[in-house]
Amino acid sequence: MIQSAVAAVDPCKCTQNSLRLDGTQLKTVGKKFNLEKGRLFLVAIGKAAVPMANGVIGSLGKLIEAGVAVTKKGQTEVVDHPKVQTLFAAHPVPDESSILAADAIFELLEQTAENDFVLFLISGGASALCTRPLLDMITWQTLSQDLLASGCTIQEFNTVRKQLDQVKGGGLAQAAFPAEIATLVLSDVIGNPIDMIGSGPTTPNPQTPSDALDILKKFNIKNGAAVEQLVFLEKGQILADFESPYEIVADLRIATAAAKEQALTFGYATKIVSTTLSGEACEVGRRAAAIGRELLPGTCAIFGGETTVTLKGDGIGGRNQELALAAAIALDGVDDVVVATYATDGDDGPTIAAGAIVTGQTVALGRKLGLDAKTYLANHDSYTYFDQLDGHLIITGQTGTNVNDLLFVIRY
Question: Which of 107, 38, 33 is nearest to 70 (CA)?
């Protein structure tokens, strides 16, 4: 089911399917663009940047004047075009490589002119991979780390980042002016809010510095430099508005639909319960276990979304593994229920795992090894717990796509 879901949101195929070329007329995002009078530039940012760019090259390769693709360090695939540069940057906390990536993109966009066309490809991870912050790097990294540990949603995280970064909140669209632009998006944000995916580098920003300040206050983020900068911005704020056509080429709904089709072939009565799952990972895990107990035998419930973790310990894990461990504790002793969680990008937190599969026997297996599952959960140390058990961690490596997380609850 996981394999089917990931295959359905293949970035290369989904991007290529969103492009139609008729002579010099390019049809995409529901519009037509004349490429005869100007040049075509390509900018791809995110965990799926390389396969998305290769999808464009499959259709438009001969027309590309120049391009930059920025993806996550650790990936090895590069863009298959001599005029498109592949850069690798840091995620989830940006570093100097993220600034160098932004510099390369701004340098490219400085070449554009009227009648040129810039095709942007945005996918999850873009916020960290490409940045030109208004704060020094150490302060910017500290702010990112504090927000990551706070339990805030990705929407709240990006609301802050958009106010303090020249890339985000439409920064790249404005840098491309007066060229025409269009954006193809692989969505990793629940509900597909275009201004939040990758922090909306090609989209007008409806949030304000005051909104960002409220979020820092809500989560008790005491970053004086960020607060000072936001207060300064609030006094002289100018909201920019511009046309920015876009299309969502793949998202969680496509992935869950493919997973459902595969589950049906296995004979399970299957339902997609939600594609907007959110909340604290351990609480969602407990709810998943409760749902599993109530399912009829031979039933599969599929969820999609993104949970959060408010860090209080010093363990190693990720939101999917934490959810799974909480579910395992709640299922202790139950014979016929399995819960599986999976991050579609193949990365769950700072670990090599993408998620975990648990049953009512998981905690008992741990006890035989002298492991107390509740202690590991309290310390947010789910990876360490599962790594000592056989067959529980899901390790796929980076998939090249990213459309949030999948949760499967099955009763046999």
Answer: 107
Model confidence pTM above 0.90? yes
- Please answer whether residues 91 and 47 qualify as being in contact, where contact means their C-beta atoms are separated by less than 8 angstroms: yes
* CATH no., domain 252-411: 3.40.1480.10
Please state the CATH superfamily assignment of the domain spanning residues 2-132+167-205+240-250 in this structure: Glycerate kinase, MOFRL-like N-terminal domain (3.40.50.10180)
Q: Domain residue spans in the chain?
A: 2-132+167-205+240-250, 252-411
Alpha-carbon gap, residue 407 to 26, rounded angstroms: 38
Encoded tokens for 56: 């464009």
> Which two three-digit tokens encode residue 213?
């300040």
Nearest Cα neighbor of 47 from 129, 103, 132 is 129
Distance (Å, rounded) from C-alpha 66 to C-alpha 104? 12
pLDDT of residue 289: 98
DSSP state at residue 340: E
For the stretch 248-297, pLDDT in tens is: 999 999 999 999 999 999 999 999 999 999 999 999 999 999 999 999 99
pLDDT tens figures, 50-87: 999 999 999 999 999 999 999 999 889 999 999 999 99
The pLDDT value recorded for residue 339 is 98
Contact 168, 158 (CB under 8 A): yes
What SS3 class is residue 172? helix
CB 353 within 8 A of CB 395: yes
Cis peptide before 245 (omega within 30 of 0): no
Query: For all residues of the chain together, what is the average pLDDT?
Result: 96
In eight-state DSSP terms, residue 354 is -
pLDDT tens per residue, range 316-325: 999 999 999 9
Residues 41, 167: Cα–Cα separation, whole Å: 17
Q: What is the 3-state secondary structure (H, E, C) of 3-66?
A: HHHHHHCCHHHHHHCCCEEECCEEEECCEEEECCCCCEEEEEECCCHHHHHHHHHHHHHHHEEE
Please check the confidence at residue 237 and state whether its pLDDT lies above 70: no
pLDDT of res. 223? 96
DSSP reduced 3-state for 276: strand
Q: Where do we find the tokens 């920019």?
A: 240
Could you give the CA distance from residue 324 to residue 281 in angstroms, rounded to a whole number? 8
